Amino acid sequence: MATNKDKLMEGVRFLALGFPFIFMGPALMTWLGIPAYRQGNYIWIGVSILLMLTAAYLCIRGLRTVLSAFFDGEDEPATKEKESNPKV
Fold first, then answer.
1. Roughly how many angstroms between the first and final C-alpha of the chain, as a whole number?
2. Using 50, 70 and 90 to split pLDDT, how confident is the model at 2?
3. Is 66 in contact with 11 (CB distance < 8 Å)?
4. How far apart are CA 44 and CA 34, in angstroms?
5. Residue 49 CB neighbour total at 10 angstroms
6. Domain residue limits, the chain
């Protein structure tokens, strides 16, 4: 089972892009969002939630890409053989 290194590096890039957002979203909500929310300003809450959703998207896409680099491959001849020789 060979690893697709280009796909693996693409997944690592997505993970590296998502990593800062994991900390920026909750930090922004704590430092600016909650105090501004108490004063009736909702913009920082929205921005912090958007950053957290961005982090989740980038990390999930990165993990899916890394896992597909490891596990997608040429291991399907056995299933093709079963399809080509059906029992009648």
1. 33
2. confident
3. yes
4. 8
5. 14
6. 5-71
Q: Phi and psi dihedrals of 78, rounded to 5?
A: -65, -40
Secondary structure (H, E, C), 4-37: CHHHHHHHHHHHHHHHHHHHHHHHHHHHHHHHHH
H/E stretch holding 47? helix 43-71
pTM: 0.74
pLDDT in tens, 60-73: 999 999 999 999 86
Provide the residue type at 14 as one letter.
F
